[in-house]
Amino acid sequence: MSLHVDSGPSTRAPVPPSRRHGRPRPGRTFLSWLDLKAAPYLLISPYYLLFLLFGIFPLGFTLWYSLYDYDLAGTVEWTGLGNYTALLADSAFWNAVVNTLGMFVIATVPQILLALLLANALNKRIRGRLFVRLGVLLPLVTSVVAVAVVFTQLYGRDWGLFNWILGSVGVDPVDWKAERLPSWLAISTMIDWRWTGYNAIIFLAAMQTIPKDLYEAAAIDGASRRRQFWQITIPMLRPTMIFVVLNSTIGGLTLFAEPTTFYGGNVHGGSNSQFQTVSMFIVEQGFREFDYGYAAGAAWLLFLMILIGSLINFLLIRRIGGRK
Amino acid sequence: MTTLSAPAETRKPRVKRTGGSDLWKATPLTRIVLIVTIVISAFPLYWMVVIASRSNREATDIPPPFLPGGNLGQNIQRVLTNEDAHYLAGLTNSVIIASTVTISVVLISTFAGFAFARLRFKGGRILLLLVLVTMMVPLQQMGMVPLYRMMVSLEWIGTLKAVILPYLLNGFGVFLMTQYTEQAVPNELVEAARVDGASTLRIWWNVILPAVRPGMAVLGINTFMLTWNDFLWPLIVLTPDNPTVQVAINSLNAKYGTDYVLIFSGTAMSVLPLIVVFVVFGRQIIGGLMEGAVKA
What we know:
Chain A is mainly alpha-helical.
């Protein structure tokens, strides 16, 4: 930092590494003071302006709306926590919660395991590295709507490819949309197809930062590859694992496009709402029933679910990684 | 390195290793995993083309067709002239929305990233922390109702600005550009520019911008893809006669549920531009993704 010693009578204050720069000193013009003092705030102001308008404002208002009762005729009435108590007693809401959690678990657990396996394979010395990685990431580029359109056709009851394959090994055709578990499975495969490769690439990046000596030392000590994977790779991946799992938690609990497209663009989620998620429930209440207060309340409960889910997953991963 | 037993693999040693190099050798299992993955990754996209180039009669054949047919042009024609989907309008709107959002987000994030990474000011840390915290909030779901009402009272429903403006809020972009600026621009460089009498804006233009361009590219590609692919918000604020491409596909899907070739042709046309972008910029996308992952 002795850089400035010889700089002589510079017209502008050099920025000292301390955090107390920018005070006007004698000899500085007002403009340069402004430049140092106000410029940082000007630079971040566009973001925070948007943040205020499209972040803070809607969040606050969602809370506000959730305390009112709206009906189709347009009358608005204060109801306090009425929407929340009604939601907690609403079997349709609980159905959506169960569906969301169910699909989240069915989709996420295999996805993380497959991503780890895939990352481990990608970490080997392979030919055509870029090509392989591009192939793995290809699904990420495909829009969720496109994924859902293709898979919905593949899962078709009468002419779907999957039922044809099942039929050729002697299994009766499955009506994927009609029942709860098959529909959850079908939707989960759409999620996994899109995100497994992405998570694998994230894991791969973290794997490559693990010092190679660790493995070599372990190999000299006679540890098998499998043992190395569980005892070196997995614990070292813990921070990344937390990132991936939290990401999947937010994405999984706000699931919308796949199940909506699966039912032909309808947010009802099947004839008995057997795959309606909480996000779809919010849209249905807010924009089909025009019960804004109820939808807003459901949105806050969803947020609560995400917080709790993230916390549980965070603690879980910490334990798994910290066991050894 | 000289003791490698597999001559085919000497092409490009990635990392120097002292011994035990067979630890990183691809086993048959590795190859199987990778090949199966790529096949699974590519198959739905291939299938999209197969169905999009067939007729509806062939699409519902048993066994299903596995090779592309010759009806692609005709099917695309049907999509473009379909009166319910407004597909061309959707395509145009998506291009406008995604480009506007991308340019704005990249600029806004580069500004903020510069301030957070290389300028010190009161409240900077707390403000940055605020960005990180709100990245956890599912704003689309949480803010949907008030934002919709806001657009109604502004009479913006059905207009592109109703889609564009909320998308400009992108905490990830600020986070990424802060990280990138910290890594790509040494503090000394900024200080030296100050000594030479450069104003903050000039430093941004002459010092920061040239150094963070790769980061901007990664953020730009990322933002473009996310915006292009998003579905929920446009579905709520746009009308079917002035859609984005995803909403147009949704209209096709809702109205012509069993007309697979029509829906698939529309879908294929919406995916193709992104695949081209992806293949062209693939190296940067993967590089950016992996770099970001290690830092997060």
